[in-house]
Amino acid sequence: MTLRHLRIFLAVCREGSATAAAEKLYIAQPTVSVAIRELESHYGVTLFDRIGRRLFLTDAGEQMRSYAQHIVALLDEMEVRSQDWEETGTLRLGSSITIGTVQLPGITARLQELYPKLRIEVMIWNSDTVEAAILDNGIDLGLIEGECHHGKLADILLGGDELVFLCHPEHAFAGRSVSAGQLNGESFLFRERGSAGRDLVESTLKAGGVEPRPLWQSISTQTLVSGVAEDWAWRCCPCR
């Protein structure tokens, strides 16, 4: 039994004969008759009584018509609505904290201009949590800094950024170019574990022979910048 069978059956119900239904559907009359016989055989019932040249629904036919109308209407509605699902659905977007603070507002604003009916839900976490949320089907798309750590995820490079070290303006190194080795023994203000930015900074410092000492750890970039302003320690962040 297919949707085509149901459409032919409903046409016969409306027109009262196989010939009239065939004309409405632009198909041959024998095709209509075969479809009705196949429906009756499939369900083991008689759908129509023939009186003269007219076909009249049996009790089973009445029940079949009710279900068929409902099924066809739902499928027709799905066909119409599916044409703009991409524009009217929900996009679940996850972002790392830095991207969410600096770049994401502009990205979502542009998406909303392109797809005004699209609902955009945003969750801000660190990079590890964003990746985990994608794997758990909690979000549809993630924006993070650094490399993707899960082999099951597909990643696309969208751009780059420059990281700079911040220190208090009265620090001895302020305004100077320094090597990684000169930072040995300095205290640092770091993002929390799981932050891609922190992973990148720590690996870069260690490659230069520096064992970083985190004095503060925070999920808030602004908190860490404020700590630098009070001359607590060094902080590395995107230059933008």
Q: How are the elements arranged and paired?
A:
Layout: H1 3-15, H2 18-25, H3 29-43, E1 48-51, E2 54-57, H4 59-82, H5 85-88, E3 90-96, H6 97-102, H7 104-114, E4 119-125, H8 127-135, E5 141-143, E6 163-166, E7 187-191, H9 196-207, E8 213-218, H10 221-229, E9 234-238
Parallel strand pairs: 3-4, 3-5, 7-8, 7-9
Antiparallel strand pairs: 1-2, 6-9
Form type: rod-shaped
Work out the helicity level: 40-55%
Number of helices: 10
Radius of gyration: 33 Å
Please state how the strands of the largest beta sheet are arranged side by side: 6-9-7-8
Sheet of most strands:
4 strands, mixed
Looking at the overall shape, the CATH architecture of the largest domain is: Orthogonal Bundle
Quick tags:
alpha/beta, 240 residues, 19% strand, 3-stranded parallel beta sheet, 4-stranded mixed beta sheet, 10 helices, 3 domains, single chain, rod-shaped, D-Maltodextrin-Binding Protein, domain 2, Arc Repressor Mutant, subunit A
Summarize the structure.
With 240 residues, the chain is an alpha/beta fold.
Walk me through what this model shows.
This protein is an alpha/beta fold. The protein has three domains: 3-82, Winged helix-like DNA-binding domain superfamily/Winged helix DNA-binding domain (Arc Repressor Mutant, subunit A); 87-143, Periplasmic binding protein-like II (D-Maltodextrin-Binding Protein, domain 2, 3-Layer(aba) Sandwich), CATH 3.40.190; 163-238, 3-Layer(aba) Sandwich (D-Maltodextrin-Binding Protein, domain 2). 46% of the residues lie in helices and 19% in strands. It is built from ten helices and nine strands. It has helices at residues 3-15, 18-25, 29-43, 59-82, 85-88, 97-102, 104-114, 127-135, 196-207, 221-229; strands spanning 48-51, 54-57, 90-96, 119-125, 141-143, 163-166, 187-191, 213-218, 234-238. The strands form three sheets. It has a four-stranded mixed β-sheet, sandwiched between helices. α2 packs across α3 (29-43). The protein is rod-shaped.
